[in-house]
């Protein structure tokens, strides 16, 4: 493992290029989660009655928020990184400088996490406009921290997929077979407690389930017992996939 | 001349494919050293090991006294690379490309600005300072790659086929710039398939083929030793070969038939020329020997695929 402060330089490169795409990426990262909030939250919410003493929209917002972080970080580290690696050959020029392969990949994961943070923050603002806000200022700050963790987790997972991807189409397997189903099995749209036992157990294997649980608790300020376990799962898994992402990408980049 | 690069029994394998097959060479400080060879000869694989982006499979390779290694940041810091492929950042402008790259080398912002202004001028891109990469011609992109390779004031510059795909004007401009750098005492390593480029720039060359070094030395000496001074190309039907070879016996130092042409090599063209005039053959070209003749003689005149 050959990591250094040069991660920041890679992040800086991405920031330089981002300034030309800010507006389109804002729109792109807002549209899908916003769609969920409006259709499910308002449309379906009208038929749902109360959810633990609150409206369905209140239930929905924290989950959609971390999902938007997940999607943004994932897409950045799938398509964004693939373009930089294969089409633009940016990694080739990076590796010829004192920036190591690990620095470059970690810098891109950090960038993916940042993009996730931006999407999540935008979502939070939209939710506030719709009348759903985190319970307190500390809870807002905790949500930022959580979003960074979630971003690094899904950025690293996506990076692992990228390290194997022969072409763009390969990413459909991951987005359609893993990310999209995960949205529906992780308690974003409805609570998991009425699922049959096997589905509940299955959900525990999905990293998004844990992120949603923590987000919902932080959002409402009500911390159920066992939440620390959810958080530890996120951090533990994140450490492993981050490490694996650097190793696998290095294997692909250095020939 | 002290050696800045020493390679001994250097091997590079990609899976089952052996790209570099046990080569040894030394490159002196301040020298311009050329790797020549057809596509797939192992030139790029060799220079990639030198500038530490590709691991050495076996053998030893030291640069400035340090072992070349993928994680050797010290060597990467003192090396400038002009890559074969255009690896510029299309999302950024010319200036931003250079600013970002100078950061990768830990060059302080103020110093970076001075160097960038200097290098943009050196490669004649002042007018394009704020243009996006897509607005540049191929020649401009190649020049920008040179400017980028100079940001860290490298002691060693690696130019991997730096003029591929350029028109003659752009090519000559790049040659001039590379010669200027060499005059400043920088060690220059060049890979090329253009013999003229090697003759223009290199003090010493090696000719690579299928991962091995076939021959090496001063370009002029190689031509002299392998071919001689002059070459006569005669287009006659193969049936007449034997007769003509007999007639030119003693005038040439060697001959070779390739396709429709019979090549005669000679050390002293004077007598051969007289003899050719005397024989009054049609379709005859008589010219000085070039590095291209050496290259083709060593690597074969047929297509390599």
Q: Can you count the helices of chain A?
A: 10
First-to-last CA distance of chain B: 38 Å
Largest sheet of chain B: 6 strands, mixed
Count of discrete structural domains of chain B: 2
Which spans of chain A of ≥5 residues are poorly predicted at pLDDT below 50? none
Radius of gyration of chain A: 18 Å
In the CATH hierarchy, the third-tier topology of the largest domain in chain B is known as Rossmann fold
Please give the radius of gyration of chain B in angstroms. Answer: 22 Å
Major sheet of chain A, described briefly? none
Query: Order of SSEs of chain B, N→C?
Result: EEEHEEHEHHHEHEHEEHEHEEHEH
Number of strands of chain A: 0
Shape of chain B: elongated
* Biggest sheet, spatial arrangement of strands of chain B: 6-7-8-3-9-10
Description:
- The complex is a heterodimer of chains A (about 260) and B (about 300).
- Chain A is mainly α and about 260 residues long.
- Chain A has one domain (about 5-255).
- Chain A contains ten helices and no strands.
- Chain A has helices spanning about 5-20, 20-50, 55-85, 90-95, 100-130, 135-165, 170-185, 195-205, 205-220, 225-255.
- In chain A, helix 2 packs across helix 5, helix 5 crosses helix 10 (about 225-255) and helix 6 (about 135-165) runs antiparallel to helix 9 (about 205-220).
- The mean pLDDT of chain A is about 90.
- Chain B is an alpha/beta fold and about 300 residues long.
- Chain B folds into two domains: about 5-225, Rossmann fold (3-Layer(aba) Sandwich); about 230-290, Alpha-Beta Plaits, CATH 3.30.70.260.
- Helices cover about 35% and strands about 30% of the residues of chain B.
- In chain B, the strands form three sheets. Chain B has a six-stranded mixed β-sheet, sandwiched between helices.
- In chain B, strand 4 and strand 5 form a beta hairpin.
- In chain B, helix 3 (about 95-105) crosses helix 4 (about 110-120), helix 4 (about 110-120) packs across helix 5 (about 140-150) and helix 8 crosses helix 11 (about 290-300).
- Chain B is elongated and about 75 Å long.
- The model of chain B has no long low-confidence stretch (mean pLDDT about 90).
- At the A-B interface, helix 1 and helix 4 of A face helix 2 and helix 3 of B.
């Amino acid at each position: 493992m050959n990591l250094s402060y040069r991660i920041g330089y890679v992040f800086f490169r991405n920031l330089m290029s981002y300034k030309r795409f800010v507006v389109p990426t804002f729109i792109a990262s807002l549209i899908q989660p916003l769609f969920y909030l409006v259709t499910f939250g308002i449309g379906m919410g009208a038929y749902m009655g109360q959810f633990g003493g609150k409206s369905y929209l209140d239930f929905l917002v924290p989950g959609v928020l971390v999902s938007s972080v997940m999607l943004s970080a994932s897409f950045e580290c799938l398509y964004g990184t693939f373009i930089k690696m294969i089409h633009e050959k940016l990694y080739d020029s990076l590796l010829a400088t004192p920036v190591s392969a690990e620095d470059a990949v970690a810098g891109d994961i950090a960038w993916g996490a940042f993009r996730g943070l931006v999407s999540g923050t935008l979502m939070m603002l939209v939710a506030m406009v719709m009348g759903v806000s985190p319970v307190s200022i500390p809870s807002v700050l905790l949500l930022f921290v959580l979003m960074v963790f979630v971003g690094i987790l899904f950025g690293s997972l996506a990076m692992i997929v990228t390290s194997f991807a022969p072409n763009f189409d390969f990413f459909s397997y991951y987005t359609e077979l893993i990310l999209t189903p995960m949205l529906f099995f992780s308690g974003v749209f409805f609570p998991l407690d009425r699922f049959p036992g096997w589905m509940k157990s299955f959900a525990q294997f999905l990293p998004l389930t844990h992120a949603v649980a923590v987000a919902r608790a932080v959002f409402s300020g009500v911390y159920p017992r066992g939440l620390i376990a959810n958080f530890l799962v996120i951090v533990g898994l994140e450490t492993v996939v981050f490490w694996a992402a650097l190793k696998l990408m290095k294997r692909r980049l250095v020939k | 001349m002290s050696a800045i690069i020493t390679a001994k029994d250097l091997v590079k394998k990609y899976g089952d494919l052996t790209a570099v097959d046990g080569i040894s060479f030394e490159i002196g400080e301040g020298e311009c050293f050329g790797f020549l060879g057809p596509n797939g000869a192992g030139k790029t694989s060799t220079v990639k090991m030198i500038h530490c982006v590709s691991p050495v499979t076996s053998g030893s390779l030291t640069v400035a006294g340090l072992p070349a290694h993928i994680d050797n940041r010290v060597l990467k810091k003192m090396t400038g690379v002009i890559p074969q492929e255009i690896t510029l950042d299309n999302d950024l402008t010319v200036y931003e490309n250079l600013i970002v790259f100078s950061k990768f080398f830990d060059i302080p912002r103020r110093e970076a600005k001075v160097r960038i202004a200097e290098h943009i001028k050196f490669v004649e891109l002042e007018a394009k300072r704020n243009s996006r990469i897509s607005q540049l011609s191929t020649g401009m992109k190649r020049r920008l790659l040179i400017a980028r390779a100079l940001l860290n004031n490298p002691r060693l510059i690696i130019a991997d086929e730096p003029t591929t795909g350029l028109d003659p004007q752009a090519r000559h401009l790049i040659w001039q710039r590379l010669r200027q750098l060499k005059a400043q005492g920088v060690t220059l390593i060049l890979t090329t398939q253009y013999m003229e480029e090697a003759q223009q720039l290199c003090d010493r060359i090696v000719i690579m083929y299928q991962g091995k070094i076939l021959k090496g030395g001063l370009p002029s000496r190689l031509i002299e030793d392998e071919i001689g001074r002059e070459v006569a190309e005669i287009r006659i039907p193969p049936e007449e070969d034997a007769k003509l070879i007999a007639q030119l016996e003693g005038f040439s130092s060697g001959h070779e038939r390739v396709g429709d042409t019979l090549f005669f090599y000679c050390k002293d063209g004077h007598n051969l020329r007289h003899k050719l005039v005397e024989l009054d053959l049609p379709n005859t070209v008589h010219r000085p020997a070039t590095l291209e003749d050496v290259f083709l003689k060593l690597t074969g005149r047929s297509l390599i695929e």
